């Protein structure tokens, strides 16, 4: 790549950082990434590329860009690049988040590194590739949305758009532009978030016997998870280390003088790659066993007949990527 091309990347990156695309789940704005997606869509068109918007319910559109329109029967291998357009929030930043200021050869601003930098580089590289006469590989750049919070975008892509994008390609390789200190990673752990909830009966705290606390059975449940489930999480991968599990959040009650009728806890589970037992389904089944056993033991102490409910938030999970 020439110096001119690098300055193209920097210019595009600056324009991308200057567009606020803090994740809608953080900033509360619906489709907060759409202005950035629209700018990239226009840019790709101006460069003679073939951009296609891929709607995602409840979020901004995703954008896939190829050098040329897809052709049926195109069996060339597909090289798919992915970069997400949302960023985390701007709280606590010590630089102006959307100025994209360049100092000493470095750009500063929210999302510069994660992942607008790779997105700008991928799009500029695609532009260059599109101008070459011989293209042995079909290349596509995907700008996915809401990666930082729910990963709704990439999951929607996999279930609704992936097959059409792959088409008749003989093989598919994917490069994800996450920050990695410029090192190449070929494997990663998966993440799965569980929510446990318990319910009770609300009452004024001056008459505790009129109510049933939802907090008490939750404490017992979490102790059981700590004692019976977490020690069983031992799978290990040579490159990513051991699987992990931790209770990360708890929330219960809504007033100091009311017996809590609802309590909720969040458990974060990191699934190890390369182990057949480390799937979201099997991990969830193992945790359910602990929960079901405890539910039987607690009986009426859990308050209402359905005192302990258990649900997993599969939407926030990713499976491990094997090496
Ligand atoms: Zn990222």
Automatic annotation (TrEMBL):
Its cofactor is Zn(2+). The keyword Zinc applies. GO terms for molecular function: hydrolase activity; metal ion binding. It comes from the Eukaryota. Signal peptide: none annotated. It holds the Pfam family Peptidase_M20. Keywords: Hydrolase, Metal-binding, Zinc. The keyword Zinc applies. InterPro entries: ArgE/DapE_CS, Bact_exopeptidase_dim_dom, Peptidase_M20, Peptidase_M20A. PROSITE patterns: ARGE_DAPE_CPG2_1, ARGE_DAPE_CPG2_2. This is Peptidase M20. The lineage of its organism: Eukaryota, Metamonada, Carpediemonas-like organisms, Kipferlia.
């Amino acid at each position: 790549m020439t110096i001119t091309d690098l300055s193209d990347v920097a210019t595009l990156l600056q324009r991308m950082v200057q567009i606020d695309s803090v994740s809608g789940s953080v900033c509360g704005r619906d489709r907060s990434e759409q202005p950035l997606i629209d700018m990239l869509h226009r840019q790709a068109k101006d460069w003679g590329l073939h951009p296609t918007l891929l709607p995602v319910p409840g979020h901004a559109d995703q954008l896939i860009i190829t050098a040329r329109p897809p052709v049926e029967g195109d069996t060339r291998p597909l090289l798919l690049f992915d970069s997400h357009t949302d960023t985390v929030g701007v709280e606590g930043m010590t630089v102006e988040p959307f100025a994209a200021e360049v100092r000493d050869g470095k750009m500063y601003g929210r999302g510069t590194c994660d992942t607008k930098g790779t997105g700008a580089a991928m799009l500029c590289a695609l532009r260059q590739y599109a101008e070459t006469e011989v293209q042995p590989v079909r290349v596509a750049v995907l700008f996915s949305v809401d990666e930082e919070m729910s990963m709704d975008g990439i999951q929607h892509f996999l279930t609704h758009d992936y097959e059409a994008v792959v088409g008749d390609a003989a093989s598919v390789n994917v490069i994800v532009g996450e920050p990695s200190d410029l090192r190449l990673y070929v494997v990663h752990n998966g993440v799965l978030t569980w929510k446990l909830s318990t319910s009770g009966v609300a009452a004024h705290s001056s008459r505790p016997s009129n109510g049933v606390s939802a907090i008490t059975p939750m404490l017992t449940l979490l102790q059981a998870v700590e004692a019976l489930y977490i020690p069983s999480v031992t799978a290990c991968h040579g490159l990513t280390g051991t699987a992990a599990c931790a209770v990360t959040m708890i929330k219960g009650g809504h007033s100091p003088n009311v017996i809590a009728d609802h309590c909720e806890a969040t458990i974060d589970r990191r699934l190890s790659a390369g182990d057949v037992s480390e799937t979201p389904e099997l991990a969830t089944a193992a945790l359910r066993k602990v929960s079901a056993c405890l539910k039987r033991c607690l009986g009426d102490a859990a308050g209402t007949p359905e005192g302990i409910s258990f649900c997993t938030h599969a939407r926030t999970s990713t499976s491990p990527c094997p090496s």
